[in-house]
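Mods, move this if it's the wrong board.
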Amino acid sequence: QVQLVESGGGLVQAGGSLKLSCAASGTILSINIMGWYRRAVGKERELVARITSGGRANYGDSVNGRFTISRDYAKNTVYLLMNSLKPEDTAVYYCNFQQRESGYWGQGTQVTVSS
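Not the wrong board. Structure tokens:
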């Protein structure tokens, strides 16, 4: 089992920045993927960004170039630095952890971008 604790959401004006954190604990294997997804009201959940234990990252098209994902391997923590935020980035952001055939989700953190 893996537990995820997220932090860092909130309210920000358009053009501003926020940084999300997600700390994983429990039985963590050396090969895994940590990432962020989001769900806006009335929309499907979508990939924001994810990063492998080897450091390879990929981003959703809507955030590429504005958001940066990173990991602290010693702390089993993944970060999402969100710059140039837009109102359409408003959503609940969920941390995701995958290893072998198992996937785990955080409780979600609200990000609201005002225009």
